[in-house]
Amino acid sequence: MTQTIDRPASVCEQTPNDRVDAWLERFNTALASGGPSAVADLFVADSYWRDLVAFTWNLKTVEGRAEIIDMLTARQRETAANGFARTGDATEDDGVAAAFIEFATAVGRGDGLVRVRTDDDGVDRAWTLLTTLQELSDHEEPQGFSRPLGAVHGSDPDRRSWAEKREAEEAELGRTVQPYVLVIGGGQGGIALGARLRQLGVPSIVVDKHDRPGDQWRGRYKTLCLHDPVWYDHLPYLPFPSNWPVFAPKDKVGDWLEFYTKVMEVPYWSRTECQSATYDEAAGRWTVEVVRDGEPMTLYPTQLVLATGMSGKANVPEFTGQDVFAGEQHHSSQHPGPDGFVGKKVVVIGANNSAHDICKALVESGIDTTMVQRSSTHIVRSQSLMEIGLGALYSEQAVADGMTTKKADMTFASLPYKIMHQFQIPLYDEIRARDKEYYQRLEDAGFDLDFGDDESGLFMKYLRRGSGYYIDVGACELVANGTIKLAKGGVDHLTETSVVLDDGTELPADVVVYATGYGSMNGWAADLMGQEVADRVGKVWGLGSDTTKDPGPWEGEQRNMWKPTQQPGLWFHGGNLHQSRHYSLYLALQLKARCEGIETPVYGLQEVHHLS
Fold it and tell me: How many CA atoms within 13 Å lie on the side-chain side of 127?
């Protein structure tokens, strides 16, 4: 109230567009002729500047004026950012004016989003600023007005057809022509990045051990569907059609990935396994041994990207008695579905997404199933998540209201991780109130619930630890009514015919499914490159929030994802479909710049605080 009364009349009368435009004008002037301190003075004390490649050649958030000054001292002159301007009408919410923006740098063109609020002295200053590099000058993607002609009009000495040229290219790549980038892992992450690199003209190969693109999805348990809605899951360039299911079944996703790989001309080697990778510091390149269709081959990429999945390697716990258990045991990633287990007793260790999906399919096939909950789980109903958690950005209504995928992605990316939980807590308070009876039924059944260490819900749990939650698409009703049996506690040991918990409870079992999650992605690096390289990179994923399974110190960004690591030439890419789409652009631009010999001085290279 005091700020409103004390605000100068001229500020009170300004429109949101006026406020943003005035700030951008001061920002342009300070960048061009002022020092870092002059720029930092345009930000409130508790400000956040998130930069995706444009200034830092990194994914980096600087917090507060001191960190802004430090970043600009290193990068202001060389970046030569200029021409910051609003690209649409600004909005205003609770006194904060926000607008999408565009700008240019010495090497390319960028987009972003700024939020301006009135400071204690009555002057408008930036609260949050997002800057992202969108394209490199003279290396723009050939699309829109610059799309390829395709047909040859007139004389052409090369009379080969498109198909013949593609065949020749495929025959050369990896043999007479080495890839600049080798992407290991051909799921949605590797395919999205492969499509970006293809459009940017970066010689690359995506390799995967499966027979066909999409087999990573086809091979999972038969009832698996996406838990995120379609508006959240589009791939680059080619969105799902308007009649695509809200929650796509796994085989439909697999078919789309195969189709996408072909249409986008992604250089994709199926039935290819990487055996080892070593880095030659003197040559600045990798030596990667692969076996393709049974043929040993050696590749020499400059850049190596591990796109083997955000979740990393399957985490199979070790329990006394596993060697004497007479039944079948497997990790959830290897679970085939319920068909082969009719008439058997199944114990599923775990109580998160995979555990619920597997248990639901088992009991719906009439199979005696017990879920073992070892720690509390965050549960959110799919409908509530769609309407309250995602609806403003990723929904049919959002599309109808003019929200594009890019605008939604930029809006989401513009919220600094440090304060994102503050925006999430009210949403989950609303969900908890709306679904009060639903949660009470689960608790009455003995299920242990949580909403995260700070009550911020699903997204923060995902970003911090990538586990500990379930988006309910029907299994919770089966837990609440007892159809899925519930047992709680740690596993002490296995006998020949049962799982015994630490309180002595014995659960008869013919099959044990370990829905026990995954380790850090650097486990794949250890397998291919050795533990020394994995330790040099350190833990992958997490924010350093000092919450459960996300130890501090504060990192400010996802550890080692989509950005340079302490191991030259090694990158990590993955996450859900949304992240694979959005962050593949920034990773591709970093790789393209290096391929073209553009200077890429990295500000704030990821430090290593945890090895795994």
Answer: 18
